[in-house]
Amino acid sequence: MARNLLFTAFFTALLLLLSPTFGFSQDLTNPKQDSAKSNKIISIDQISSETETLRGRISSLEKVLQPSMQTHEVDSLVDSAYIEIMVNRDSLYSQISDLTRRDLNVRKVAWKNYRSKLKSLQTVLNDRTNDISEVNDELVDELEKWAITKGDLAENNESEDVFASLDTMILTLNSLINVAHVRLDSVFSVQKKLTELILVVDEANSEINRVERQIQRNYFVLDSDPIWVASAVDTIPLDSAQMDSVNKESIFIIGVKKDVDALKKFITLNWETSIFQMLFLLLLLVVIVILNRQWRVIESAGIETLDQQTKIIFDNPIASTLAVGVLISAYFYEAVIPVFGEAQILMVLFATIFLYPKVTSKKIRVFLWLLLVAYFIEITDVYFIPKSPTVRWLLILESAILMVAIFLGRRTVLQNAHKFKKIGLIFRYVLPIYELFLGVAVLINVLGMVNLASMMVYGVLFSIVLGMVVSLAIKVTTSFLVLIFKIRKSRNNHVLSVMVEATNKRFQPALVWIGIIVWIFFTLKGFDIYSNITEWVYESLEIGWRVGEMRISLGSILAFIFLFVTTLLIAKLLAAIFQDDWMIQTLPRGVAPAISLLLRIFVIAVGLYLAFSSAGFDLSELGFIFGALGVGIGFGLQNVVLNFIAGLILAFERPINLGDTIEVDQEMGIVTSIGVRSSNIRTYSGSEAIIPNGDLISKKVVNWTLANRDRRSKILMRTAPNADPEKIIELFNRIAIDQEVVYKDPAPKTYFYGYDDLGNLSFALMYWTSFSDTLKTDSAIALHIFKTLKEIGVEPPMPNQRNFD
Questions:
Q1: 349/326 Cα distance (integer angstroms)
Q2: What is the side-by-side strand order in the sheet with 749-755?
Q3: What is d(CA 735, CA 741) in angstroms, rounded to the nearest whole number?
Q4: Cα-based distances in Å from 565 to 538, 558, 569, 578, 604
Q5: pTM (2 decimals)?
Q6: pLDDT higher at 138 or 640
Q7: Res 560: pLDDT
Q8: Spatial contact of 360 and 367, defined as CB atoms under 8 Å apart
Q9: How many secondary structure helices (H) and strands (E) does the chain include?
């Protein structure tokens, strides 16, 4: 029996495998393809309308597929640039070993400009490629739809006219697809040439970087003879085209002309950015002039020193514009050649010499003029042959001038420390180190380490000049903020004073820190160690360990710590800003603390997410941790979550605000902070009461200053039985209303309660005043009543005999 059943099952399976319906069963295994295919079929009654729609669409697609003038222009530009770039590459490779650091910077800027322009052309080609690809994809989809429709109609034996219409549309689509492929091929051909050219530019930049690193490695070698045996010949290597002009013009003039030509070429290549920079400076000048006119009609208020500084800065609009505008607009350029950067630094330095002594001390002007002389020597010695005796003696002279400048400037700053609060630390601690550097530079220059000496002198000069320029820029920016506050708040002197105080307390320190970061960055650039430090840092950050499937590196750990600490600092800074008096008084009541709380929560949440992400943790795989955390919250952290949610409720509903006087849990005081978990109350006895936010929501809270600060005060007084109650009532009302802080509406009222238990007359004086004036007003009125009753002869109440038993 079992054998027969097994044979029957085997035979049935074999028939199924050999059955022609097996193929049909395979078709059923992929119903999605059939569904997609059926969705593309055009019904016969819609063929006419679809044909008209497609013809209208084809006309617009044909416009896209027309030959592009932009592609032809890019092709011609690439061909012309190819010749120029190859010539410059050969020139670079043949001269690169003899180029100075300054010449390398000029070449680097030129090659960066090449790359920038080629990248812009590549963007044009990419846009063209995307447009054609989108058209091609659309045509392919349409072709598939019409082909499927034709096949479906063929099965249904439709008329020949319908097939002819379908064939026409299919042929049209095929021809357009072929055109799209031709256009793509032409664009790809140009893209290929452009990509090859970009690779040539990248190789040139890499070669320049290699030579610069080689120069850095050669700093600590004797690259010249001692100065007492050096050759006295000062010439520069000239090519054959310049040999005839040597006899007619000095070497110095030739170098200057060379830089002038380079400057003209740079401005020509960056003419759009140059015009934008000029317009930016002009606009900034106009804004300063307009603000200066409004400044003259605003009364002085706030911090006196900031007022004086603001007045001086805006009375000198050109110098202020150069001091800030040139620094900002320098970042408009992707890269600048040395002569252009030197010209901009000279402009800013002249503005600093003119303006900085006016806002600090006139004695600092000598220091700044010596810096200008040293900088002028620095930018002119490049026109002589490197390491020649003239250059080396100029370097010694520059070092001597800088040492004198540092001595005079440091003495001036230390003697007037109150006028140089922000930059005084640099003069006190950094400049002595720079003096040591300059002395070492003179010594190694004499011995023959000219490259190292030149780098040290330039680094010191550049660092000091930039420090003074950044210091002035901070003062100008601070004054700009002060003046804007004065203009916007000129009708409210109290708010104005608070805003100016906030500028001095909050904004100016933030600008100082930004200036310090900028100064450190460019100081490292000046000493030519920035690239070495960044390379060392990147290599160190790659050190890591593998824990299971996750790799932890030193960089990820430091990134986590940095982001976590930065998050806490930012959250604390935001809390401090929005809890300052100036912000509380500027925004509507209670809004500033609420914003402070919400921002802290948001910043901390985002910061923690970024910190964990930077450390390499995949938060999507930490679901089990959050699940365990949820269980922990359910058992042990209920109060923490309750207080957190209560903090959010306090932020939105604002039943209490900073500065309110509240009473909760037998504690009465002023609210000093509203935190994420708890709030602080400073009691009138001086203690600090920490109240969980949950108690402020769930328990009874008396807010004495929520809606207003008006409070009714009550003074109970007694007199002897022989007093006239009507006169006493009139007297009490007059005494109360004579007080300046007592409200006239509603007017004070005195009520007579008759005789008390001892037979004395009992009165109650009620009046309205501000909450903060209640205690002192009660005391003043009671004292005045006591004196007046004594003067008019009203006897005091009879003493309670029981108190003497």
A1: 11
A2: 710-719, 761-770, 749-755
A3: 12
A4: 21, 10, 6, 20, 10
A5: 0.64
A6: 138
A7: 78
A8: no
A9: 28, 10
